[in-house]
Amino acid sequence: MATIFFSYSHRDETLRDELEVHLAMLKRQGFIEMWHDRRITAGEEFDKAISKNLEEADIILLLVSSDFLASNYCYDIEMQRAMEKHEKGESYIIPIILRPCDWRSAPFGKLLVMPTDGKPITKFPDKDDAFLEVVNAIKGTITRLKLRQDSTSPSISYGSAIKPQILDIPRSSNLRIRKTFLDRDRDQFVEESFEYISNFFENSLAELSNRNLEVDTHFKRIDANHFSAIVYIRGKKATECRIWIRGSSHLFTNGIAYSSNASGSDNSINESISIVDDGYALFLQPLGMAFFASQQNVNKLLSQQGASEYFWDILLRPLQQGST
Fold first, then answer.
1. Rounded to an integer, what distance in angstroms lies between the CA atom of residue 282 and that of residue 185?
2. 115: cis peptide before it, omega within 30°?
């Protein structure tokens, strides 16, 4: 069983949790045991617990973001020690780029990072695709670890019928606690969500055009906070939109706005999504202004994927209902 150590910023805890879920099958099969600082129990010394588990780790996952690079503990203590162990052949390091940041000049920049080509996980239209790449990379690393074992050790392949030893300590899965989200958290979530929606639209427009010979599409990044999308059918503009990060006003809180006019102004809004929380995580919630809005999603707490689909549904509804 390979031991995996998560080195991460607490601001990226939600993404760490998602990765841990994707590694569940490897854990069920008995190939890995995972540890991060949220496993520290009452009475343990924080620094000693981290140091002990870092030293014992076979695989060290560096969950890289701007907050990770800015953290003295993550960068100067955990990452530096991880690099020493990697260079001595004592552990494997897998840097995982969570969010866009200047990671290439870091000491681990010379290593093979995940996802492929260092594309940040939050830039994927579907984060599950990104996490699957990471899981496959970890599988490959586990294979290399097994090859280093003594040749007399029993070999266990993926999918083996041999029942693994269960090492889990019984505990509850109900471990969430309420959080207080600050303005910085909300502002960062708005920017990440806008970037996700932007990539979602760019990729979806390209695929829409590929699958329909009579369709042409145009995606334009107007600036860091605005983009537009246009769909043409046989050269005629059929549907369009403009999406941007919206500041707070007397009518709206911070969020992301949608206009059915690709060349309109920020004063023309057909739909808007606000940032809300349920006490545990941040979500996106539509106001339900758009005539073509998918009503089953109005007033629901949406993920970035769900919000992207919601806006995309508004854009495509005229085409799918034949109103063009």
1. 9
2. yes
Sheet with 271-277, strands from edge to edge, namely: 215-223, 226-233, 236-246, 255-259, 271-277, 282-286
> Which are the contacts of 164, defined by CB distance < 8 A and separation ≥ 6?
1, 29, 30, 31, 156
Q: Which residues contact 293 (CB under 8 A, 6 or more apart)?
A: 271, 286, 310, 313, 314
Which single residue is written with the structure tokens 């102004």? 265
Evaluate if residue 58 carries a pLDDT over 50: yes
Bridge partners of 95, per DSSP, are 62
Which residue type is seen at 312? W
Ranked by mean pLDDT, which of 8-12, 41-45, 300-304 comes out on top? 8-12
Handedness of CA 260, 263, 268, 273 (dihedral sign): positive
pLDDT value for 298: 56
Question: Residue 238: which of 228, 230, 246 has the closest Cα?
Answer: 230
SS3 state at 43: coil
Q: What is the pTM of this model?
A: 0.52
- In this prediction, residue 154 has a pLDDT band, given cuts at 50, 70 and 90, of very low
Q: pLDDT value at position 291? A: 52
Helix/strand/coil for 169: coil
Place of tokens 């206009």: 259
d(CA 259, CA 268): 6
Backbone angles phi, psi at 19, to 5 degrees: -65, -40
Alpha helices, DSSP H, located in the chain: 13-22, 24-28, 46-56, 66-70, 72, 80-87, 127-147, 183-211, 304-320
